[in-house]
Write a structure and sequence with these properties.
The structure holds 2 protein chains of 2 kinds. Chain A is an alpha+beta fold. Helices cover 35% and strands 11% of the residues of chain A. In chain A, a hairpin with an 8-residue loop joins strand 1 and strand 2. Chain B is built from 17 helices and 19 strands. The longest helix of chain B has 25 residues, at 551-575. The chains are: A alpha+beta, B alpha+beta. The structure holds flavin-adenine dinucleotide and FE2/S2 (inorganic) cluster (FES).
């Protein structure tokens, strides 16, 4: 296949970026989207030109590194797939493909298609964990968890932290990301003691990191390569309300239930 | 090089308990005076960093990805072993120990493996407490499944994403400690050298991958948790960033590198489709619980699989290894696949593939049961190949997957450099010549959560903080050397890409130091590698500078290290004139083509050290088997 690419090039976080046009020829339809970019990058490299910077690692849809908007869609046209899982057979010979970085206030561009997603780690630091030190655990089967809750917790926990939800949201909100973690832990018995303080602290950090508010567009769910449902956002909202009420009733010492 | 394994005295099952009771401790108030550097925040590193911080040490942790959550561990699919015996099927610590020793073809240290089996119990408890959503039964208890090389169900799993869930658990623990101030995290940072002061590891030199800044970090102990080196083959199931740099740099500073030739070729990966291929995708071993592996009985049979009647199919694993069948260990299953393909019975357009067929299981259990068990793996397969495995069998072929070799460590996980430790896939300790499925996650977490937190105290108690800083001459010298290496790389202006060299090396290694090795092939490769290295420094091209994000430069550094390391790997394979586990020397096989081990001459761990003149020199740690009898491994 022969293709034309329009790729966002930006040298530094502060420099002004722009689209640059490239032709790539003889692309195998069996190759992946990133392999197509590899091909172009190798050509650029041997010409002594700067290759296009993009993040990737696992190349199988689980590490969440790859992050590009392809033809206006985070991770490209296919549903439930990351950019690295996109294959060239999804395109036609002669196509023009537009490639951009995630665009969100909380994810500043570092270079070309690489953005700074450290704000996600900050949200986790605010409470996306269970406070149990190593060695303090009871036997794993001593607390039973019904299969439905365990499965539902897994559905939320499957988030790969790629940021497509933020990139897709007109407000640049991280609500789906945050809700997924809040729900994963909140659905399990082990997560109960910190359930309400967790949601309050994580939402607070989300705001502090310059993510926008959620106004129920639902674009995040559409873009999520792991199919994480926005029902978890409603769950977060319920827990958040309850947490706020508890805060008011009990002062700052928030307890579960 | 002195190789004192420091295995404690006493009966096997008491060694760890008595060792813990006897080793020195650092008292809680003093712990905060010690600095510990953890390089790598995959399962091994994240669990170690979090736990050491909980204990009170000041920890600095490093990874080259933008977040610790993206370490290669995230990609592990199938599961994690533990001798919980929740299924009441006869499992025990001893049985897990024995299976691991046997699976490793009797080339691992007994005491380490037994400890691993013991702490496996605590790992599952810890992970569940952190909220890892393992699969559960309707009654609310944890589910298990079987993996290769075992006759019990001891593998815990979270759909096909066990590594992800375990890593997110360890990552959450790490983030909790970062928030508390116990760990300072340096993402987007690559360690480029270890710094020794008076023969002891005192820190590292790093490059900030965003700004290019070279920095030194001082500490009282350094832990390398930097994963494996399967990407020496270029094509492997590992993440693209996996590399040997950290452990190779440690070797160059005097650490022994053990069993570099012990690499694992995984039997169930999606076959290569063409030149463009940048990595291979694993189809989890768990699929072998329900999938049956076969090829046509007749050579060159090009009919579609559904047109080949039962009688003309060869379920070769079931035929050759009836008691383990499709769940034979990886080395054996991989070699068997190679054998049938070499005979011309391979499937797919390249002839390098065998079928993994679910039609019987779908008939027996129904499509939805198979979907619940393996849905995401089937989806991955479909995405990559464009074929639907519910309707026609998967095509699979072996691919490089895991490296049992790594830095030599003693019972305390310390390398031959005092104060330098290696954890997880980066060390050589537990898997001998072949790793059983679902045991790498177990080992990484065992090392990080339950071993190093104890054993590090023994060393630190004798090495009080002494005020050495980053301005010490050794740091300045090492920084200078790192900068010189980088400027050499960044000035490469040839006309070949870095990846083209990586591919060339990978091809050479796959052909000669892969699934089957021979004296002739290895000798030739050992001669070719220096020549390839020379061409690399003449012909490779690295555009840009070292002063900002330069991914070509990062890859160039890693490939340069592989070009040195590969030679030692081949030397090791050449030295070992026997076949054992993943190491198959074509000269040493039985008449039926099974591996022929030689316990009289090769019952040792090979440890390569850098000699005075820079060439690799072989040292040996003799392996003593006091509790298990050395046997010919049979899965028949
Ligand atoms: C596809 C796949 C599936 C697998 N499935 C299973 C399974 O089901 N069960 C099982 O038990 N095992 C499985 N394994 C094996 C297992 O995943 C790995 O062996 C294990 O996760 C390795 O963990 P680790 O912590 O040692 O290293 P890694 O997770 O590889 O982490 C390495 C860390 O080191 C860092 N690093 C490396 N070099 C440097 C440097 N120079 N400077 C700074 N940082 C550096 C990286 O950033 C990273 O944080 C699988 C492996 C693969 C490839
Ligand atoms: S590279 Fe890991 S998700 Fe795409």
């Amino acid at each position: 296949m022969n293709l034309t690419l329009l790729v966002w090039r930006q040298e530094t976080p502060t420099s002004e970026g722009s689209f640059k046009e490239y032709k790539v020829n003889d692309v195998s339809p069996d190759s992946s989207f990133l392999e197509m970019l590899d091909l172009l990058n190798e050509e650029l490299e041997v010409k002594g030109e700067a290759p296009i910077a993009f993040e990737h690692d696992c190349r199988e849809g689980i590490c969440g590194s790859c992050s590009m908007v392809v033809n206006g869609k985070p991770h490209g046209p296919n549903k439930l797939a990351t950019t690295c899982q996109l294959h060239m057979r999804s395109f036609k010979d002669g196509d023009t493909i537009v490639i951009e970085p995630w665009r969100a206030k909380a994810f500043p561009v570092i270079k070309d298609l690489v953005v700074d997603r450290s704000a996600f780690d900050k949200i986790i630091q605010a409470g996306g964990f269970i406070s149990v030190n190593t060695g303090a655990a009871v036997d794993a089967n001593s607390i039973l968890i019904d299969k439905e809750s365990a499965d539902s917790a897994f559905d939320a926990a499957t988030c790969i932290g790629c940021g497509a939800c933020v990139a897709a949201c007109p407000n640049g909100s991280a609500m789906l990301f945050t809700a997924a973690k809040v729900s994963h832990l909140g659905l399990l018995a082990q997560g109960q003691p910190e359930r309400y303080s967790r949601v309050i602290n994580m939402v607070k950090e989300m705001d502090a990191q310059m993510f926008g508010g959620c106004t129920n567009h639902g674009e995040c769910q559409e873009a999520c390569p792991k199919g994480i449902s926005i029902k978890f956002i409603s769950r977060l909202n319920r827990d958040y309300l309850k947490g706020r009420l508890l805060q008011i009733v009990q002062g700052s010492g928030m307890k579960a239930q | 090089m002195e190789l004192n394994s420091k295995v404690p005295d006493g009966p096997l099952d008491k060694k760890w308990t008595s060792h813990k009771g006897k080793i020195k401790l650092v008292n809680p108030a003093n712990k905060r005076k010690y600095k510990v550097i953890v390089v790598g925040t995959g399962l091994a590193g994240a669990s170690a960093a979090a736990t050491l911080s909980e204990l009170g040490y000041q920890v600095k942790a490093f990874c080259f990805q933008d977040s610790p959550r993206r370490a290669h561990s995230i990609a592990a699919q199938g599961g994690i072993n533990a001798a919980k015996n929740y299924q009441n099927d006869g499992d025990s610590v001893y049985r897990l120990f024995y299976d691991t020793i046997k699976g490793g073809d009797f080339r691992a240290r007994e005491a380490n493996v037994h400890r691993l089996a013991e702490v496996s119990l605590n790992i599952i408890d810890q992970c569940v407490a952190q909220g890892v959503p393992f699969a559960r039964e309707y009654g609310g208890t944890l589910s298990n499944r079987s993996f290769g090389g075992a006759q019990v169900s001891r593998t815990f799993y979270a759909r096909g994403q066990t590594g992800q869930q375990l890593l997110l658990g360890a990552y959450a623990a790490l983030e909790k400690e970062i928030a508390r101030g116990g760990v300072k995290m340096y993402p987007f940072t690559e360690m480029l050298d270890v710094v020794l002061v008076d023969g002891r590891a005192r820190g590292i030199v790093t490059r900030n991958l965003r700004t290019g800044k070279i920095e030194s970090h001082v500490a009282d102990a350094v832990l390398l948790c930097t994963g494996g080196y399967s990407t020496v083959f270029y094509l492997s199931t590992n993440a693209k960033g996996c590399n040997v740099t950290a452990t190779w740099r440690a070797y160059k500073r005097g650490a022994g590198f053990a069993n570099p030739c012990f690499t694992q070729i995984h039997p169930t990966c999606i076959p290569v489709t063409g030149e463009h291929q940048s990595k291979l995708t694993l189809m989890s071993e768990s699929l072998r619980n329900d999938g049956r592996i076969w090829v046509p009985k007749n050579k060159g049979d090009k009919r579609s699989p559904s047109d080949i009647p039962e009688g003309e199919r060869d379920y070769y694993l079931e035929r050759k290894y009836p008691s383990f069948g499709n769940l034979s260990p990886r080395d054996i299953a991989s070699r068997a696949a190679k054998e049938v393909c070499d005979e011309g019975r391979g499937v797919g357009s390249s002839g390098l593939g065998v079928y993994l067929d679910f039609s019987d299981a779908i008939k027996r259990l129904g499509r939805s049961a198979i979907e619940a068990r393996y849905g995401n793996l089937f989806d991955i397969y479909k995405q990559i190949t464009g074929e639907n495995p519910y309707e026609s069998p998967m095509r699979i072929f072996p691919a490089p997957h895991y490296t049992m070799g790594g830095l030599w460590v003693d019972y305390n996980l310390m390398t031959t450099i005092p104060g330098l430790y290696a954890l997880g896939e980066a060390n050589f300790s537990d898997h001998g010549a072949n790793r059983l499925g679902a045991s790498a996650l177990m080992q990484g977490l065992a090392d990080g959560y339950f071993v190093i937190p104890y054993t590090i105290g023994d060393f630190l108690a004798d090495h009080k903080p002494d005020g050495i800083s980053e301005t010490h001459k050794s740091f300045l010298d090492t920084e200078r050397e790192v900068k010189e290496r980088l400027s050499k790389l960044v000035s490469l202006r040839g006309n070949r890409s870095i990846d083209s060299f990586h591919r060339e090396l990978g091809r050479l290694m796959w052909d000669n130091c892969g699934m089957s090795r021979s004296k002739a092939g290895l000798t030739e490769t050992i001669n070719k590698i220096p020549e390839l290295r020379e061409r690399f420094y003449k012909e490779a091209c690295v555009p840009g500078s070292g002063e900002d994000l330069n991914q070509t430069l990062e890859r160039a550094g890693r490939v340069a290290d592989f070009l040195e390391f590969a030679e030692v790997m081949c030397r090791d394979a050449l030295d070992r004139e026997e076949s054992c586990g993943g190491h198959f020397r074509s000269e040493y096989q039985t008449e039926e083509g099974e591996a022929k081990r030689n316990d009289d001459d090769y019952c040792y761990a090979s440890v390569w050290g850098k000699s005075e003149d820079g060439s690799p020199k072989l040292f040996k740690e003799k392996l003593n088997f006091e509790n298990v009898k050395l046997q010919t491994r049979s899965y028949k």
